[in-house]
Design goal:
This protein is mainly α. The protein has one domain. The chain contains 3 helices and no strands. The longest helix is centred in the last third of the chain and has 28 residues. It is elongated. The model has no long low-confidence stretch (mean pLDDT 77).
């Protein structure tokens, strides 16, 4: 009987020991992060041109795929 009580006491002690460490880490993670973001730069001409090409290609892709979808349905 004493072995069971001793084993249970040891098990509870081992489980409870790391709790303060976990609580401190959890509290540190839930604190709001300090805002150190820099002001965003406006997009460059090259970046804007790339986005326009992507939009154009996406529209062309949709047009090409439209007939394929109608055949499957």
């Amino acid at each position: 009987m004493y072995k069971v009580i001793f084993a249970a006491t040891i098990a509870i002690g081992l489980m409870a020991a790391p709790l303060p460490l976990l609580i401190q880490n959890a509290a540190a993670q839930t604190e709001p992060a300090k805002k150190t973001e820099k002001a965003k730069k406006p997009p460059s001409a090259g970046l804007m041109a790339m986005r326009e090409r992507q939009k154009k290609c996406a529209a062309e892709w949709k047009e090409m795929k439209a007939p394929v979808r109608s055949r499957r349905e």
